[in-house]
Amino acid sequence: MELNKIQTIAFDADDTLWVNEPIFTNTRLKFEEILKSHIDANSLEDELYQTERKNLEIFGYGIKGFMLSMIESAIELTKGAITGQEIQQIIDLGKEMLVHPVEILPGVRKTIKALKEDYNILIITKGDLFDQENKIARSGLAHHFKWIEIITEKDEATYYEVLHKHQIDISTFLMVGNSLKSDVLPVCNLGGRAVHIPFHDTWQHEHLTENDLVNQKYLELKNIDELVNILS
What we know:
With 232 residues, this protein is of the alpha/beta class.
């Protein structure tokens, strides 16, 4: 992969710059504890995901949509037997997620500081506007980025709009993220460059099959701090 022409580097936020999915996983486990007195919680992960997926077009991505999907799933799966007190517990789980400390991943601060000296760097992240703005502000990283884009979906059309907005030539653009589906493939399909940095916990919605990756060219790194070396 040729990287000598790169001028602009965009970073995904959740699970690329800071921890995100484990917070959802831990909340889902607590949700299962709330429901276990009503139903067999063994299949709850898939049931909840199906509700989340159905609601994406209505609520979008993020904690608030996840919380509403938990409440809807709880009502449906218990056939209305869930109590008001238990629904309040689910709401409280969502509130806990919204104020959870932002845990910056290893190597991120050092890498961002090093790259901003030679490149235009930005964040491109999807999710709830208020929640993402809040996390970016609390991260202490915002001042390093030239632009911050919070979008509703990461697909080819949206990346094209962001690049056009900032007058970025796709041939000089590099996207860095943990999701092949959202961060890597759409950019590769537009003719750009992408770096995949896998994260140990990935949402079911972001999973791909091997067939999805046939003939796709991207770079995979173990850690974000390798990025400086491969660019230099």
